[in-house]
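dumping this here so i dont lose it
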């Protein structure tokens, strides 16, 4: 579940249109730039969550962030860039959590592919609960043009990574299908977590899903 699928959209979302990022800037200016970008992303998440992507307005996002619209365009190029930057942030944090968890398990001597897979899935689902507001936004059908294709691209890469983690022979159709089903279960559970009423309910779902994954992960025969 680690690794990054790059695209022109996400790369552009991370860099100002003038081609100046934090690299090479004095520390004070770099810190100021990070603060501005954080304020813009937080405001964008609020407005996207309340109004949906289509009805969200850049003027309102700028007003809530306290950042001029022109600066918003400089950093993100518009509404699409903001949305893709939020998605990239969610993916990177989820992948970081999973990678850290798997590294910790391996350092303890755990090498069973199924145990590692289920532990990684638990970390992913717990992260989905912690970041549920952003997660709910990203599974809606209301996103920028081309986002569905980008999401499908990442989903395919996610299946491939899970196949490697489970040590499944991707040349065998049955193996590929099994990993695809397991990955779909995790994605569906992550969406359900976005609607949980409290942490107790969320933990029950995570435990239930990990039990299902443990059962389904076992190779046939």
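and the seq i came up w/
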């Amino acid at each position: 579940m680690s690794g990054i699928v790059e695209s022109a959209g996400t790369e552009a979302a991370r860099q100002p249109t003038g081609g100046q990022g934090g690299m090479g800037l004095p520390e004070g200016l770099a810190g100021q730039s990070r603060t501005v970008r954080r304020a813009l992303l937080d405001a964008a998440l609020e407005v996207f969550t309340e109004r949906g992507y289509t009805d969200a307005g850049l003027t309102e996002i700028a007003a809530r962030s306290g950042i001029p619209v022109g600066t918003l365009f400089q950093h993100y190029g518009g509404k699409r860039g903001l949305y893709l930057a939020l998605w990239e942030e969610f993916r990177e944090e989820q992948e970081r959590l999973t990678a850290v968890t798997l590294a910790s398990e391996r350092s303890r001597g755990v090498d069973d592919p199924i145990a590692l897979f289920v532990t990684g899935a638990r970390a992913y689902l717990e992260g989905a609960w912690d970041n549920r507001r952003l997660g709910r936004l990203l599974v809606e059908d209301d996103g920028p043009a081309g986002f569905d294709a980008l999401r499908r691209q990442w989903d395919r890469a996610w299946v491939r990574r899970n196949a490697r983690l489970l040590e499944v022979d991707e040349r065998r159709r049955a193996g590929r299908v099994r990993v695809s089903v397991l990955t779909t279960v995790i994605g569906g559970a992550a969406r359900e977590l976005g609607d949980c009423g409290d942490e107790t309910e969320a933990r029950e779902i995570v435990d239930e899903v990990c039990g299902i994954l443990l059962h389904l992960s076992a190779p046939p025969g």
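Residues 1-25 have pLDDT under 50 and may be disordered.
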